[in-house]
Amino acid sequence: MADFNMPRINCQDPDVLSSDKKAKTRPKLPKAHINMATLWCLQCFRYAVRQLDDQLPDVFDVECIINVACPQSCYICTVPPGIRGHVFELMALIKFVEKYWTDDIEYKDGDESQTKALAELATAVDGLCTAFDDLVETHRKDHMLTGNVSDEAKAGYFAWCKARQHMVRPNTQYIKGLHFQYARRGTEHLRLRMGEEASISWAVAICAFYLAVTATVTKYVTSGSDVDYIDDQFPLEIPEF
Length: 241
Known about the structure:
Number of helices: 9
Shape: globular
Mean pLDDT: 82
Oligomer: single chain
Radius of gyration: 25 Å
Structural class: mainly alpha
Strand order of the largest sheet: 1-2
Distance between the termini: 87 Å
Low-confidence stretches: 1-23
Strand content: under 5%
Region (Disordered): 1-24
Largest sheet: 2 strands, antiparallel
Number of strands: 2
């Protein structure tokens, strides 16, 4: 004969927990908000750029937080997926130059040189971000992703992205350093080919950024290793024209 377990009869007041219920711990709830390190929206990105202009030079950081309960995204405030790879290129360059804010760098004339150097580096970052913003706006206009985006434009852009997926050639080599990791992740997403839309302007901006950082560090920094860092650790290939 099968054994049947009789249900426990609880004679306690319903507001009083039994011992086995007390022993159970409440499951941890997921975070209500997530900080978007790379999938930030354009509004938060542009706000961070304005802060770079208005305040003393500091590490460039985009603070974009979404509510996981009701995440919102649209074609207006997000970077289109067809150029998502360029986001990681931008982040790779910003992380690359962040060293001069966070590390203990020896400057030729002490604090005075440091202040001038960081101001010039912040200007270089600002120019890079402006070029990226122009890249995004040109791409959106070319694909009619501005204003009230029509269903036809969305479908056409989806087809355009899908037709280019074969162009993605992920770099599987693992390299230490977040700036190199961002550069590698850029190869896992769609990017423009040289000559398309604003790709040449973006390539020029990368070259200008490299030259500006090199000139600034050479002018103000004492240690040769911190100068050599530029050529050794620059995360992207310098475009050739």
